[in-house]
Design brief:
The chain is α/β, with parallel strands linked by helices and 255 residues long. The chain has 11 helices and 8 strands. Helix 1 runs parallel beside helix 2, helix 5 crosses helix 7 and helix 7 packs parallel to helix 8. It is globular, with a radius of gyration of 17 Å.
């Protein structure tokens, strides 16, 4: 039985004060909700402060990116071993904002996936099509290509204990979420795509939806059989909205 995962992606937002205050509020609201994993990914600057603020809570720590190198002359980068060292567990890779603004390739993202697995961290692999690709009927082709970069280099077993976040680019930060039926169709395609290689791995795989998830639309999305929680941007910056999304995931998946 898969547990849903609701993860907050704070993106380039926050401060010491905000990190402490938001985590204090989340701890309060989320601690009594069972049956749903919860994680937050603050900017890497604030990971250590977040770790201290989270001490003893059930909220896991995550990060928004990782480098393809483990150490050495790579100015400005952060490695998988460093993330592990400060207590991060869930690491977002391949977010569309990084694919777009930092020209990250499928191959580089697959390298990050492998490094995270070796370090004992959980990759949260973001995939999804742009609006133009969606309109051209290329959603499945794009998602398959982005998954295949990992499948073909590391095999289906690499997805054991990993997470995929399906985030249609046109839905991110736009207020225009995919409909539950639209998202479910793609999630089912993703699970089937992996099942063709290994049915057991596909069955346990957490496939989150991301893109304008909020406290209003979460329950309907989570009612879909292949939607296992969400990667939440904007709404993860508000304790009440994020907690409501966690509650909706726990309720949908545990009756
Ligand atoms: P959003 O972002 O919830 O603000 O649309 C989601 C994401 O980019 O992970």
């Amino acid at each position: 039985m898969r547990h849903p995962l609701v993860m907050g992606n704070w993106k380039l937002n926050g401060s010491v004060k905000m990190t402490n205050e938001l985590i204090a509020a989340l701890r309060n609201e989320v601690s009594s909700i069972n049956g749903c994993e919860v994680a937050i990914a603050p900017p890497v600057m604030y990971l250590d402060i977040a770790k201290r603020a989270l001490g003893g809570s059930r909220i896991a720590l995550g990060a928004q990116n990782v480098d393809t190198n483990l150490s050495g002359a790579f100015t400005g980068e952060i490695s998988a071993t460093m993330l592990k060292d400060v207590g991060a567990q869930y690491i977002i890779i391949g977010h569309s904002e990084r694919r777009t603004y930092h020209s990250e390739s499928d191959a580089a993202i697959a390298e990050k996936f492998a490094l995270l697995k070796t370090a004992g961290l959980i990759p949260v692999l973001c995939i999804g099509e742009t609006e133009a690709e969606n309109e051209a009927g290329k959603t499945e082709e794009v998602c398959a290509r982005q998954i295949d970069a990992v499948l073909k280099t590391q095999g289906a077993a690499a997805f054991n204990g990993a997470v995929i976040a399906y985030e249609p680019v046109w839905a991110i930060g736009t207020g225009k979420s995919a409909t539950p039926a639209q998202a479910q169709a793609v999630h089912k395609f993703i699970r089937n795509h992996i099942a063709k290689q290994d049915a057991a791995v596909a069955e346990q795989l957490i496939i989150q939806y991301g893109g304008s998830v909020n406290d209003k639309n979460a329950a309907e999305l989570f009612a879909q059989p292949d939607i296992d929680g969400a990667l939440v941007g904007g709404a993860s910056l508000k304790a009440d909205a994020f907690s409501a999304i966690v509650k909706a995931a726990a309720a949908a998946k545990n009756g």
